[in-house]
Design brief:
6 helices, 2 strands, Arc Repressor Mutant, subunit A, mainly alpha
């Protein structure tokens, strides 16, 4: 997986890194059991501070996307509380939908966007989550 950081973005670098790893999982570029590069290695490859990578990994661990293993380092290991995850997604969607309403983007257009984005992902476990 290639990670691209936009150094001119207003979005914090650790958030960009976190988002790209989550996208990698959603698109099956990263799967459960895959090891991520070490903090030092990823920082050197991207040209960012090690503390920035460490912060991104810490957020990913707290959110249940990775586990830290002493021998393997950061490993993709999806572990989450579905009720908590649903509440967090709901909170994020409220903000996004408020913006859509303020910009006169209609319900049908939002539904189409969500469908298009959801369909673009090829996450292996998606069917399992849809059935629960």
């Amino acid at each position: 997986m290639i990670i691209k950081i936009d150094f001119n973005s207003d979005e914090a670098i650790y958030i960009q890194l976190r988002n790209q790893i989550v996208m990698g999982i959603a698109t099956s570029q990263l799967t459960v059991g895959d090891s991520l590069p070490s903090v030092r290695q990823l920082a050197d490859n991207i040209g960012i501070n090690m503390h920035t990578v460490n912060k991104a990994y810490s957020v990913l661990r707290q959110e249940g996307y990775i586990k830290l293993d002493r021998r393997k380092g950061a490993v993709i290991a999806i572990d989450y509380d579905q009720v908590l995850a649903s509440r967090q997604i709901m909170a994020m969607l409220q903000s996004v939908l408020a913006e859509a309403i303020c910009k006169n983007i209609g319900r049908e257009e939002v539904h189409d966007m969500v469908d298009d984005i959801y369909d673009s992902f090829t996450c292996r476990g998606r069917r399992e989550y849809d059935e629960t």
